[in-house]
Amino acid sequence: MHRFFPLLLLLLTPALARAGDLKAGAYAQDITPTKFPISVNGNFADKKATAANDPLHARCLVLHDGKTTLALVVVDSCMIPRELIDAAKALAEKKTGIPAKNMMISATHTHTAPTVAGVFGSEPDAEYAKFLTQKIADGIETAHKRSGPAKLAWGVAEEPNQVFNRRWKMRAGVKNLDPFGGDTDKVRMNPPRMSADLLEPAGPTDPRVTVLSVRTADDKPLALFANYSLHYVGDLPPLSADYFGVFANSVATKLKAGKGFVGILSNGTSGDCNNINFKAEATKTMPGDRCRLVADAVATAAVKAIENAEYETDVVLRSVVSELELGVRKPTADEVKRAEGILEKAKGRDLKGYEEVYARETVLMAKYPDKVKVPIQVMRVGQFAVVAIPCETFAEIGLRIKKDISPFKTTCVVSLANGYFGYLPTPEQHALGGYETWRARSSFLEVNASTKIEKAIGEMVKELQK
């Protein structure tokens, strides 16, 4: 029997070496600007913040399995252009050695953060963009340095009461005007509450709260990466991390986590969903009340998702990235001429109303390339998959990826990740029209973009299974 022992030892050693090799580090890097006033993203007209209501962070999680290192970062920002994210990744790679392709950086989509992406009336604050690039890289570096033995678990719970589809089909005869002089839209975004004209939502919601839980080797909460498909809440003054920041504190409290714990909430497929129940009357609240209510509900679901989870130390970490070349919906010469006429009449004053704002967007879109390269990423963390799409993705796309495309036990879909390429409706939703389909820097990809992206994701998750 002894003569077989060396062979037996040789066969067992690789598995024994992997088990327990998992390391993790987390850090919440403060990214609150130090100079005011500053432009705030997320509105048709630009707004200026003169102070911070609550701190903004780039919440960083680094995982290492002995062979591969991944970095997941969620930034309190409305949307972040690919150029800034690529620069932050390159800087972080120099600092840590983590390959840029193994990093995912996404925006929460708070509408009360400094402008780093030009959309509608707001243009990037160049000084803050440079500051943010450095801070994101610093956060990844610190999380990497803090890495220690860890274990992981994942799970899913539901919170259906805080998310509603905001695109509504209206009764026959109701005109839905667009900013280009048309009235063929079949749906309206954010219609009047409790209106007799409301028929039904134009799409579903995704109530899932998807969670990746990280604990230290001695079973102390280290980080929790969650995902929920809610656009934002919006009842806190700028600058604010919105409910994403409140969630980080709430989940830490519920887990009785100690100092250094990092709660992270990424934005799911919420391009057509928000926190307004259009069939119910609005209730009076104080600033921050709804953020606290939603954050507490989502944090409760996140804790429930992992309450019976089995933690693992022997997990496979992998990342694949694919660049898709997608078409751009550009205006015709006649549309540009109309837009230029509207802007000429408004010359010398701030733009007002949808028509004038979209006229400027039309002129800017005419200068866009005919095609753009869009990065799609999928990360594997054991049987947990993170799908990253650089768009404001519609809920039905996320549901389909989770149900029909991904073979992994648990899958979350992160929107606004690795860049910003506007809204991502399905071709069917494009046919219905509405704000999310109106051509602008906020919505410009070809009508079939979602179909091509879903196909690419299907191929990528198969590759990760090999």
Write the layout of secondary structure elements.
Elements: H1 5-18, E1 23-30, E2 38-40, E3 47-49, E4 57-64, E5 69-75, H2 82-96, E6 103-107, H3 126-145, E7 148-158, E8 164-165, E9 167-170, E10 187-189, E11 198-201, E12 208-216, E13 221-228, H4 242-254, E14 262-267, E15 273-274, H5 289-305, E16 317-327, H6 333-345, H7 353-365, E17 371-381, E18 384-388, E19 392-393, H8 395-405, E20 410-414, E21 423-424, H9 427-432, H10 449-465
Parallel strand pairs: 5-6, 13-14, 18-20, 19-21
Antiparallel strand pairs: 1-4, 1-7, 2-3, 4-5, 7-12, 8-15, 9-10, 9-11, 12-13, 16-17, 17-18
Helix pairs in contact: 2-3, 4-5, 6-7
